[in-house]
Amino acid sequence: MNTPAASPAISRSHIRTIYTIAVIGFIFTLHMVVPMYSNSSFLSGFVDESTVGYIYMVGAAVTVLGFLIGPAVIRRIGNYRTTILLTIIQIALFWGIIAAQSALGVIIFFVLQTANTALIGLCLDIFLEGYTDGQHVGGIRGMYGATLNAAWIIAPLIGSMIINGTSNYHNTYVISLAMLFPLLYLIYKNFPRFHDPHYTHPSPWQLIRHASRNTNWVRLFTANTIMQVFYAWMTVYCPLYMYKVMGFRWEEIGIILVIMLIPFPLVQYPLGKLSDGKGEKKYMIAGFFIMGFATITLSFVTMPSVALWALVLFITRIGAAAAEVMMETYFFKMESPRDAAGLGLFRMTRPISYFIAPLIAMGALALTTDQYVFAIVGVITLFALYPIARLKERN
Question: Per residue, what are the HEC states of 342-373?
Fold first, then answer.
């Protein structure tokens, strides 16, 4: 398959728009991730560490509610106006986090921005899908994923440089707030004439019933939920473990995270292109296998070595990058741009994972120590192999 830029099936205007969406997605992801890996440490400055998990659970519940309501708002006022509105709300919420002095204020703004961020991501997905033709799903999603994951690589380094060995995590939100203004401008300038597809109108319960009857969809949903639990655990608990248990400085954690995330832009674009001509299932299987066993290995990495931790985490992300782009490609080959509710349900796996991950943490720590929770998460990750093995292969 040719790249989107060289394919005669995609017009030049669509090519430019796809790349514009990628730039918007890059800025959006950068604003989201700069404070992400220090969020748990930031929140622990206002509440005790055991409460941090409950805050993420509340944020997850509000996000799920947002995904159930969001498609109706998009149908009513259109994806362009919805994205503009959500971005303005995001500016207000980030300002609230920066200005809040009380624990309650910080928690409220944090929970609301968690849900609002997820809904902006949903709107960007709808923009991209609207300009994606069925023959180039893998290449376009791979390019988009690689662009977003380049931001995931840069952001932890920026975040650790901003923190710079201090406990002043507010500055990460200041930088993220500044990024929202060019994001708002690019959306405002490029999509005022976006043609909304005729969105479907199922109620949330109708959608859930419909999806549950499709066993193939349920299998993919299950595997994606397991992957998102892996991400949630790594985002919330892994940096805390490295900082408080292993004794790494934030500068060292930033370096480890940057190295860890390199596989995403390297792996996802070429695999996405490849999947347009071949099936995705075998790459999903390989990806989860690598993720699971490498995560189990972390329980036995007891030396505070930057190189060793970076290497093992790098291997986990080789598997994650492969599995993620294959699931994205598989899903978007099944769905159409008008299925905003279906897309919302698929994206709901992320907030669900932030509800599940703290429960895993509490249950695992009741049975073992911090060190061996990685082994439990790795085993849970391997459970995804069963539903993936039963997926129908798509070509």
Answer: HHHHHHCHHHHHHHHHHHHHHHHHHHCCHHHH
